[in-house]
Every structure is written in C-alpha cells, then in structure tokens.
Amino acid sequence: MKKFTISFLILFTSLLSAQVMQNEEPAALVPPTESKFLSDQIIVQGLYIRTLGNFNEVWSSGTGAYVNYGMYFPDHNTLNFQVGYIDYKLADDLDSLNGSFNVIPLLIGGKYFFSDSRFMPYVSFMNGINIISQTIAFHVEEIFDEEGNLIDEEIHFDESSGDTRLVRYAFQVGLGIMINIVSSLNVDLAVKYNSHFYQHEAMNTG
Description:
Blueprint (H helix, E strand, L loop, with lengths): L1 H23 L16 E10 L2 H4 L2 E15 L3 E14 L10 E13 L5 E16 L2 E8 L5 E9 L5 E19 L2 E11 L11
Antiparallel strand pairs: 1-2, 2-3, 3-4, 4-5, 5-8, 6-7, 8-9
Organism: marine sediment metagenome
InterPro entries: OMP/PagP_B-barrel (IPR011250)
Protein name: Outer membrane protein beta-barrel domain-containing protein
C-alpha cells in the first residue's frame, strides 16, 4: 500500500508538472495582438481657419481641404503625409482691394492615438513648407517711443505687380478624435493650431 501511494504521488506530481509546462509553453508562442481599429489611413478633411494677430487685420479667415495618408505602426502611432489647398478671405473693410491669398501646404508628421477602439482620441504634429501665392503683399511697421517701447503697429500695403509666390516653413499641432462608423470608414474631428511664418511681424496663425 505504501509503495502504491508513493507511486501514485510520483505519477500525480509528474502529470501536474507536465500540465504546467504544457500551459506555459503556448504563452511564448502567442503572436502580437493585432490592431482592432487602427490601420493605414487615407483621410480627406475640410477645414476652416480663423486667423490671429496682424495677419487677421488683412486676411480674416481661410477655407480649404487636406488629403492625408497615414502609415500605421505598432503602439498606436501613424506617420502622416499631408497636402492641401487653402484660400483666404480679405477682412471686411478691405473687400475693395479685390486680392487673393492661397496656400498649398506640404507637411509630414505623425499622430499618437490614446486607444485602439471605436472612439480614438489623438494628438498630432505636422511640419513642412507652405507654397504661398498672393496678389496683395503687406508689411507691419512697428512704432516705438523714445525709450524703445513698442507703442503701435501700422500695416502698409506693398505695390505688387501680378501674382507673387513665397515658400515658408510651417507647423501644425492638434487634438482630435477618430470615430469608427463601419469597418473601413472613420469620421475624424480635430482642432489644430497652424503657424505659417508669413512674416515675423505678421505670422499667419489660426
């Protein structure tokens, strides 16, 4: 009886050890978890820009569109390439000037998504160049007092013959949320700050 009991315990222990090893083995072979909702993306965005600062005194707002391609990487990241077209509107009191100001942004950057679910909030950063086409150019004159303190700024329009083009550095930071509607269709809502470095005294921000 003692021999049987010892043999049974050895057999039971061996079976238990084999079962533990069998349960632990597949864990090392489990493939990485695939993304549920995030993948490579093609995004078309309509946009409205409200300008700020001195630039706002000439060009009050802008409308346009972006086309954005995003390459998905693990850990909720995408590498994004973006091109667009933005048309700016003159301030109401300058409509008589009948001018135009258009921008073609060429940007590269990325997004970080906080979750991989049907609702995907994210932060984004893009930078690159803007190709600017304008028929009205202006500069800002800074007026200082005798002690060197800035007391006023005046906008002066430059004489321009026809269409002129500029290339300027630009960057963009934003907060947004992507909402999955069906398997391959998302709605992307975002608020972004743009800086187009039009002039040091009149940066195109909005």
